[in-house]
Please model this.
Amino acid sequence: MADTFELVALALPADVAPETLPAAVKRLVADCWPGMSRGQLVARARRHALQPSLRAHGPSAPGETGLFSLTLTAAGGVVRLIAHLRRVARRRASARATVSAKTSKLSRPPLRDPRQASLF
Model:
């Protein structure tokens, strides 16, 4: 069974200015939220016509935050971001069976204030 990771933060490398990012990458960063899963992050990048590659920079224990290199190919150029992902501890099979689908926590995007739309 694959490990479950959730997004804590996205960051730029020190040598990259935010103004140099392509529009598709800016839209992706604006669409991400803390708590989204690794699969949601990769799927969202694909929806923005980016070719994502997510690679770990070392092992992390359950509950710890690890560093990942998120490489995106956009408009022929390559953009590298740093993704901070928390490894979520696995549940026992018996605990998983008792939780109903309604009570399980799903990571959904936060509600956005329409007045702040110009910021993204």
